[in-house]
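Morning. Coffee machine broken again, so started the prediction first thing and wrote up yesterday's gels while waiting. Chain of 165 residues, entered below exactly as on the submission form.
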Amino acid sequence: MDRHDIIGALRERILAFATSRVSREHAEDLTQEVLVVLHEKYAHITDLTDLVPLAFQVLRFKMLDAHRKALRQGEYNQKSIDELPLANPDSDPATQLDQQQRVERLLTAITRLGERCRELFKWKLEGKSFPEIQQLMRQQSINTIYTWDLRCRKQLLSSMGGSWD
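Came back before lunch.
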């Protein structure tokens, strides 16, 4: 019996054992991984009586490793997507009122800021980058813009009573 026949017979045994423990698709992957390890690390072992126990030991290690990985990634505790409640696109009235009040407080606080801070916030909300704002504000150093941004955010937070909520 040549090496190719031995590996073919061994592959069938490994696959049958793995399929009895995990899904067919996962068993195919595990079988391939075991055969790669046997080919790369244990090519010098050619006797079937030595190769079979070695292959099953490698398979057990691979299965344990896959189990630990699945456990670590939380795959065993996942809920089916069909069991999860649908999200309500409309938030409840209390949340809407809270959000509306926060927006009103924020707009009121922004009107109390100086012109430079209001312009800076306007450009940031428009999605402009700091280098673009630097050009718009005609400043030589971008660090000046960073400093103004920090000061303006502190003023805004102070104007809102020290809390964003």
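DSSP finds seven helices and no strands in the chain. Going to sketch it on the whiteboard this afternoon.
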